[in-house]
Amino acid sequence: MPSHGGRAPADPHDDEILGKAYDARLARRLWEVARPYRRVLVASAVLFFPIAALELLQPYLIKIAIDAHILPGDWPGLSGVAAVFLLTLAGLYALRMLQSYLMNLTGQRVLHDLRLRLFAHTQTLDAAFFDRNPVGRLMTRILNDVEAVSDMFGSGVVAILGDVVTLAGVVVVMLAMNWRLALVTFALVPALFTAAAYFRRQSRIAYRGLRSRLARLNAFLQESLQGMTVIQLSAREPQERLRFEALSADFRRAQFRSTTYDASLYAVVEAIGSAAVALLLWYGGGQIWQGVLSFGGLVAFIEYTNRFFLPIRDLGAKYAVMQAAMASSERIFGLLDLEPTIRSGRARGRADGRCPIVDVTNVWFAYTGEEWVLSDCSFEVRRGECVALVGVTGAGKSTVTRLLNRSYDVTRGRVLVEGTDVREWELDALRRRVGLVPQDVFLFSGSVEANLRLAADGAVTKDALARAATLANARGFIESLPAGFDHPIRERGANLSQGQRQLLAIARALVYNPAVLVLDEATSSVDPESEALIQEAMGRLLTGRTSLVIAHRLSTVQRADRILVLHKGRVREEGTHAQLLRRGGIYSHLYELQCGR
Amino acid sequence: MSPPRLLLAHLRPYGLRYALGFLFLALGSLCSLAIPWTVKLAIEALQRGSSTPELRKYILLILGLAAAHGLVRLGSRFSILGGGQAVEQDVRNRLYRHLQALPQAFYHAHRTGDLMSRASNDLAAVRHLVGFGALSLLGTAIAFVGTLAAMLALDPRLTLYAMAPFPILILVARRFNATVHQESQAVQEQLGELSAKVQENLAGMAVVRAYAMEASEIRQFQGLNGEYLGRSLRLARTQAAFSPLMGLVAGIGTLIVLWQGGRAVVETRITLGAFVAFNAYLAHLAWPTIALGWTLSIVRRGLAALGRIAEILAAEPSIRDASDALDRPPDFRAATIEFRNLTFAHEGRGPALRNVTLAIPPGLTLAIVGPTGSGKSTLGALIPRLFDPPAGSLLIGGTDVRRLRLEHLRRAVGYVPQEPFLFSRTVRENLALADDDALAPRLEQTARAVGLDAEIRAFPEGWDTVVGERGITLSGGQRQRAALARALLPDSPILILDDAFANVDAAKEVEILEALGDVLRERTTLLITHRFKAARAADWIVVLDEGRIVEQGSHDTLIAQGGLYRRLWRIQQLEEEISRA
What we know:
The complex is a heterodimer. Chain A contains 21 helices and 12 strands. By secondary structure, chain A is α/β, with parallel strands linked by helices. Chain B is of the alpha/beta class. Chain B folds into 2 domains: 312 residues, Up-down Bundle (ABC transporter transmembrane region fold); 141 residues, P-loop containing nucleotide triphosphate hydrolases (Rossmann fold, 3-Layer(aba) Sandwich). In chain B, 44% of the residues are buried. Chains A and B meet through helix 3, helix 4, helix 6, helix 8 and helix 9 of A and helix 2, helix 3, helix 5, helix 7 and helix 8 of B.
């Protein structure tokens, strides 16, 4: 029966290039994945034998019924056979139920394990990887590709085995019953096989053509939708419509071709099935004449022939499942094989009160090639100091912060935290020490409380959360939410105002309480009332805390112990607000600019 | 138009096809019913011990029927599935035509992904409805009528017995479909949760990293993943219990025929041949009955999908030619563009422009400046009617733009948007978008005017290089100059540059504008820009703030006035000083 619930359409550019249905290297790795469930797998395979046996018994029972009871006129005996038939039905039902469940069990468990492995693996990959790989593609791996693999365990490999068992059983029984008649049936096998293989192959080629045309059609449509304004402004609708209609017609033709082969396959198989019946009647009729064959035998043979042809016809469908699984597992293992370039060191930091907490020395950094974002950048942050980082867009401010928590590694130079190179730090420990807080807060769907806690699952008490919220001036609005701290935040915090989100970010930083706070102030402006709340909370957050703040607010730079002016990838000016203003350099321009807006 | 009426309207042209398909299905059913009947006759002949020629006659008949059945079956697929594909094509083309007529506001309100899903997934569901769905429904109906008639002809009492399990089968199938539907819905919902989690996690990876949340994220995923497994296994259990049940109920039918049919043979009410034929007929009925639920779900899903498509078709193409539109365009080259006390708001928002009154004489280069969100782009977008201005508030050559034919108007206006959009086609096709017939020298001349010709010649395949994912990627500046060349090519008398040089530096912008000097002098040009250096060269400058014209004049007078213009000018100077530092 067809499955319910469609699968997401494949990426139009991710053309389905189907290759081999079996690849020894991939198969070995897949076996490793399925290994924990080998018992279930073996059990479901073993079940095929009794199932095939019972299925083969049924036509034989009909033969007995006809020959031994119906034709001789033995009604009570017939009831006996009917009772046995009923038993086979019950047995088959039980066995099939068990087997179907076991097959699904393996498939679903494999799906579960692979998904978890993929997800856990993405968590270890570095920022540069995410810059290169769009979220959509990774989601396809984790959500769709694994399904193709689980289909293979659920209905591919095992079902092929089942078909082979059934086929072998039918052949043996037919040969044993009447080898001449059996050979008559088998005479049609080459024809069936050739026809099935031919139409399957044509159908596959046609299907591939269909997919590529659909991809083309959808790509064109997508581009049209995105560029509709351009089309309309160029008064080009008629030409574009012609192009679209040509693609649309092309798709329809490809579809019809595909339908032709599919329909022909079934028509031919059915015709050959009927031809087999005719042949059996012809040859079997002669045998009945000679007394070699009974009527029951003839009827049973017709039944066996039906059961013989079906698996041959369906073999192709299972082949396609295997192909899809191999293509998907290739992509899955490709992702799993990627090694993160940023690996954890072992140092957990040491308490050395003398050296600066953060020490950036002669750092050069480029995201790609030689496009330097930081060139020979040096500065330090001492214990207990609040340092403001200012500069125009693109000066490299955010990049500096990303190097501090090792989202990226420096190209040249070094970054020390508490006297230890960040590359030697244990990653988790480093990130617990250096807390990077963007004020354009990224909220996860979940309760307010969960968003404040983030990683600190059990370690923070409710009281501590409430205290942090109070200090951050966030308590008022949180408690005005219908469910307070348990209030669900919608995706990306769509149900909160800009000001509320910034207050939450401050509360989050207070809860996380890192040794060095690296804060990226929000650029978006808020209403004056919220602004006052935020400034007050910022004061509480920064007082007495070692911090590096990418500052956009005047109040923040005035509060800072020291201001660093980052320009074109290096620190160009340094001092307090008053000192820098007197100097009349870049900072004073920036200041005037800020006031002018 | 309601979904069923929409469906009927699109089915009507193929009425004959579907009628033919119905005929083929009926003939096919007749053939496939005749085969067991012939087998019956053959067996009876064998039992009588009659002659070989008679047997041969039956066998030839079976072969003939089999061949005929195959052909007719093909015919039914071709006519009905092919009809479904034709309907799909018609609906798809209609949808595309309609989408072309919808205004920009529609595209702001609908995400591309959503529209794509309707135009691909939903359309496929409609094809299934009018293809497989129709085939299956018609086929099932014909199979039931035909098979029942044949069985009744053989033996009414046995028919009654044999059909006894069918109501159960139908009930079981319905129950099964309902349960499976419900449980697979639950699985899909959990998959939705899972994919939302993955999406959020991957999108927020920087935060996850910063707060060292990896372990807790994996734990959360594990929880969702475990729940997904649980729900999937519940579905698997249902399927395991129900699917073989279908086989069981159908098998019970066979059992009844074996038992009661055998008795009928014993009692010589029917022949052995009839007994065999009966079994074959029963097998005919089992599959359509089992598949009935599936067929109905195709119909249900197809109708729902059709509803979503009808929604798009119901969206009004609000910007279109008026009934009293002018047949002949005015002389745009000599036309003044006139805003008369224009106030305009995008749907659901406050006014973007307020009481704008402005006359732009032909041939003038007018610069429009102002802070972000002051309504500059909206002002430019009203001229080619990307949005419709209120009646009587925007006139070109004395005619309300709403009375101009869209084609005339848009051919007269060259518009270069902020975000240039290039198609995945060749450079030539991209540039010649508004003028397919432009000859090579003219193309090259235009490319030279925007300083792009040398770069195009350096592309791997020159003018025939494909742009985009499957070809080369152009830089932001190249894309903007390409868009500019595209707008210049058809020689439109009105040119609107909507911050068209945001991706090149200020010096380059001035350089391009200077190089375009002659080209701009021939046209009425609206230069919307945030760069004052560029604005300075214009004949006249208009300063917008919060949708109102607050100042206008030449650069020097505006500087002397010391208002908003002067303030913004100073900010830009500071920025330049900083960047030079």
